[in-house]
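Provenance and format

Records in this collection were gathered into a single text stream. Each protein contributes a sequence line and a token line. The two records reproduced below are adjacent in the stream.
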Amino acid sequence: MGDSTTRGRSAVAWGCGAASAVAYGLTPTFAAIGYAGGVSPAVLVCLRSLVGAALLLLLASATGRLKAVSWKAAAGLCLVCGPLFGIQLLCFFAAVRVTGAQIAVVIVHIYPLFVMALVWVLTRKRIHRGQLLLAVAMSGGIALVAGAGTSAVALNGAMLALLSAAGYALYLVVGERWVHQVSPVTAGGLASLGAGIATGTIAVVDGQSWTFAPSGWGSILFQGLLLMPIGIGCSFIAVRALGSAAVSLLGLLEPVVGVLAAQILLGEQLSPVQWAGMAVVLIASAALPWMREQRPRPTDRPPALQGAESR
């Protein structure tokens, strides 16, 4: 009976991890659909984040999770993590607009390399030689993905995607001090609220239009009401049950789903050289969680290496 229950819970956790990866993988394609409906990147990030924040915070309030949140943790998540998350997501969506969904979703998947660099800067812990080799391999894969397209477009889009990856890594590392103090739903809601406010301010200052076609609203609501809650909630369930290494492997579904969704729904195509580059990035990403001299206990793993938990 006990073994059967354990297997059942493990199956649920794997299913949640896969659902999270699929939700994140679909996000850039639906962002592109929003652009086709006349939504600008900043407005899209703002409204998507505010819709998701309202849903997550309502759930946190209904389950009593908001009562236990300290003002210090709430301020850190909303005023520090939120703007960081919003700006990096803005860079990612801008990259999708420049290069299309396929290239952007592959390049941004190298964010663990930036996490490694930040952790080294903050802790001065020696980086494993295997991790450095994988970093070189991933850089080569990115060069293949970005370099095979139109030079100017590919370079600009690649830079935006790299900025997004670096910003997401910074968001995870900086937010580590607060995410352990509140529930995953509450943390996601507060960070999303801060992201919406920050990117909304950018949209207002830049004079971006807030009127767009119904398809734009459809993209916003689909992301805020479905993709965000599934991506955030299911990833936390999977990490707690399976650990970071397993979830990192499941995270490889994200760029695969993203590339296939863009090909089916948007008609985007990768060249053979770009497919080769994507394969290099994915294989190196799969090996990265295992290239560690000493694996920490689940409670000691930095959340930054636990997959895209709040993307």
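Adjacent record:
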Amino acid sequence: VICNSGNANTCNANGIEIAEQMSDILAGKMGISADDVVVASTGVIGQPLDITPIQDGIDELVGGLGDYSDYAAEGIMTTDTVKKEIAVSFDIGGVECRIGGIAKGSGMIHPNMATMLVFITTDCAISSPMLQKALSGDIANTFNMVSVDGDTSTNDMVTVLANGMAGNKEITGEGEDYKAFMKALNTVTVHLCKSIAGDGEGATKMIECNVYGAADEKTAKTVAKSVICSSLTKAAMFGADANWGRVLCAIGYSGAEVDVTKIDVSFISAKGEIQVCKNGAGVDFSEEKAKEILLEKEINISINLNAGDEKATAWGCDLTYDYVKINGDYRT
């Protein structure tokens, strides 16, 4: 994988040629085929990308390769304020396997998938078709359920690389080993999703929206995404204002078919839980307790549609003054 930040290398005159040059340069230095190189770019759209710094720096990059990810996690940051990385180990048939990932993403985050770069590696032996199936299935419920600002991007990527060096029996079909791999993969992706949402541009809080009791999965996902994307709900969370009516509005305009007279809404954080709406109507609750709950750095908006057994989760963040400042000054 070769990646640059600061320049998206898209919507310019020779972006494809530059990407091909990046691939050829790395392949030549590592003695591999250019077809085996993944190229990623992130940054300002529509600007020419000078290949010279990449050519000049490739020897140092290749010479600095090692079994660590700190520099890579930091190198792909743009408006990110923190590095995003995680690694876990898991068991496949008595053999310890590992999977880890690094991510970049802070603004212009919205399915599918946003200004997001995610690189996942594993030493688990798994066939290419099953690896693709695992990633595609997981992304539908993780990275495609994250929104910071409702803006999608020209550039995004989630890639997973497996080298099989753990020595486990290769996973070639569904079964217990595949389930174990999927569970470990999901642990990594959910952590990175929360890291991206919590580090949204200008954000002070990470918001998780859990929807329960939906008639089908599509309805649950539609509702969760709509609430996470609601500017008014995001602003209310910034102000620690338990304005649950904004949540119901977001559910209503989501396009999902729901019965408003069955909807329950609660706000949850480390400070406790408080129900603010039952059967589509407000209930008496302590504004002081609600504010205490919403002042936390991680907030959960829990919605029960009471119409079935399906559920979904989406992640986002609050909307603050700093979001406007950051994006108003982005190129300066």
